[in-house]
Amino acid sequence: MAEYFIDALGEMCPVPNIRIREKLKELDIGDAIILETDHSCACITISNEMRRKGYKTAVKEIDTGIWQVSVRRVK
């Protein structure tokens, strides 16, 4: 299981979403993407879209105004 990190600090929507979508093409079952962002709406947008597509997601605020969005391929 691989884990990929995307630093999207300072990037506004839809850039973080686009970067996640591009990396999804490389994921095998069990692999995860961790995206770090300071754009709160990116957390919501990415989480909702990835859940609809069947990925497991989680959001954690790691510092004031900085979140990590994790996306894991489960199927």
Automatic annotation (TrEMBL):
<dbReference type="InterPro" id="IPR036868">
    <property type="entry name" value="TusA-like_sf"/>
</dbReference>
<dbReference type="Pfam" id="PF01206">
    <property type="entry name" value="TusA"/>
</dbReference>
<feature type="domain" description="UPF0033">
    <location>
        <begin position="6"/>
        <end position="30"/>
    </location>
</feature>
<dbReference type="InterPro" id="IPR001455">
    <property type="entry name" value="TusA-like"/>
</dbReference>
<protein>
    <recommendedName>
        <fullName>UPF0033 domain-containing protein</fullName>
    </recommendedName>
</protein>
